[in-house]
């Protein structure tokens, strides 16, 4: 049976739930279409699974192949091999925040939370508005029991883009189950529900929270 924290929304590699796409930009590139949120050198836009964050960086062509292979390995739970390839990518493309995000996610899935934090922090050092990295940092901090840091990370993601519903739900879960801040939980569940009105599971959690909040 899944617990609520099993349903924390991660937003890493595209094939997980939302999508982080590392785009090889060997030449010039066009600007984002009007109306799409911009995230410091990236384009954030909805897709079938949630959001896709496209980061436009210059990397060697062979590193793109390593990146794609690493994503396949991570998805198939071959974490050691995937991490090794992602490390190669970060060495060849040290300014690619997206690669550090995926490396941090891979470390987290392998159970190495300390290295996960290092990689994710590097991503936000490269791009202080890297909302995906902030969301993943929140998950890792929560897993380490550092709840205040987790809250700050989710709030940073939402400060970049308030409609980023993955961080919105994760913050609600954190406030509900770990911080005992029912106001924070209620507000963020409600905000998430406005963004994702068909999520019936969250509707049940809101009803449960309201029942617990009654005198």
> Structural class, please?
mainly alpha
Strand arrangement in the largest pleated sheet: 1-3-2
Order of helices and strands: EEEHHHHHHHHH
Net shape: elongated
Strand content: 5-15%
Mean pLDDT: 79
Q: What's the N-to-C terminus distance?
A: 30 Å
Helix content: 55-70%
Radius of gyration in whole Å, from Cα?
Answer: 17 Å
Uncertain residue segments: 12-41
- Counting H and I runs of at least 4 residues, what is the number of helices? 9
Largest sheet: 3 strands, mixed
Strand segment tally: 3
Keywords:
3-stranded mixed sheet, 3 strands, 215 residues, 59% helix
Describe the structure.
The chain contains nine helices and three strands. With 215 residues, it is mostly helical. A hairpin with a 2-residue loop joins β2 and β3. The two termini are 30 Å apart. It has a three-stranded mixed sheet. α8 runs antiparallel to α9. Helices cover 59% and strands 9% of the residues.
Q: What's the gist of this structure?
A:
With 215 residues, the protein is mostly helical.
Task: Write the topology of this structure.
Blueprint: E1 20-24, E2 42-47, E3 50-57, H1 61-75, H2 79-92, H3 97-110, H4 113-126, H5 131-143, H6 147-160, H7 165-179, H8 182-195, H9 200-213
Helix pairs in contact: 1-2, 2-3, 3-4, 3-5, 4-5, 5-6, 5-7, 6-7, 7-8, 8-9
